[in-house]
């Protein structure tokens, strides 16, 4: 089954949260219900230039991360009855929105997320040596 875009939410920090239903029918009337939340965070070169550690590897980081970095959160439930699929998805959606939307909307979320991804990339590059 192709991913179905359920909603787009404009966040206070000018990012867009997209929620997808990526559920898969498994056996008979059973489903693996998958909810995926994605935010495309534009890459900010200024973050690299703030740190000497990052700026020395600027080109490698940019090449590895690209123009944008995707935040992704997945929730799933397996062996869900066909009659319960929609309500289970709605529960997952509501729980994610109730527990996470405020955090994702914070003004500092994009910077903190990108810094985390830059650190992960730096660590990966160091392990290659």
Helical content band: 40-55%
**Total strand segments:** 5
- Name the average pLDDT: 92
Estimate what percentage of residues fall within beta strands. Answer: 25-35%
Structural class from helices and strands? alpha+beta
Q: Give the helices and strands as they follow along the chain.
A: EEEEHHHEHH
Q: How many independent structural domains? A: 1
Give me the Rg, rounded.
Answer: 18 Å
Distance N to C terminus: 41 Å
- Major beta-sheet overview: 5 strands, antiparallel
Shape: elongated
**Continuous helix count:** 5
Q: Runs with pLDDT <50, length 5+?
A: none
What's the helix and strand layout?
Elements lengths: L3 E7 L5 E6 L2 E2 L4 E13 L2 H5 L2 H4 L2 H8 L2 E14 L3 H21 L3 H20 L1
Antiparallel strand pairs: 1-2, 2-4, 3-4, 4-5
Q: How would you describe what is shown here?
A:
The chain is of the alpha+beta class. It has one domain. It has 5 helices and 5 strands. Strands 1, 2, 3, 4 and 5 form a 5-stranded antiparallel beta sheet that branches. A hairpin with a 4-residue loop joins strand 3 and strand 4. The protein starts with a strand and ends with a helix.
Write a brief caption for the model.
With about 130 residues, the chain is an alpha+beta fold. It has helices at about 45-50, 50-55, 60-65, 85-105, 110-129; strands at about 5-10, 15-20, 25, 30-40, 70-80.
């Amino acid at each position: 089954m192709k991913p179905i875009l359920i909603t787009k939410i404009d966040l206070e920090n000018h990012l867009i949260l997209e929620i997808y239903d990526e559920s898969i029918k498994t056996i008979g009337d059973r489903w693996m219900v998958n909810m995926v939340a994605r935010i495309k965070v534009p890459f900010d070169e200024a973050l690299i230039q703030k740190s000497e550690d990052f700026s020395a590897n600027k080109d490698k980081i940019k090449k590895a991360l690209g123009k944008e970095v995707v935040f992704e959160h997945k929730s799933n439930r397996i062996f869900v009855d066909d009659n319960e699929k929609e309500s289970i998805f709605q529960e997952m959606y509501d729980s994610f929105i109730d527990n996470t939307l405020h955090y994702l909307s914070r003004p500092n979320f994009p910077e903190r997320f990108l810094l985390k991804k830059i650190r992960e990339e730096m660590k990966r590059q160091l392990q290659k040596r």
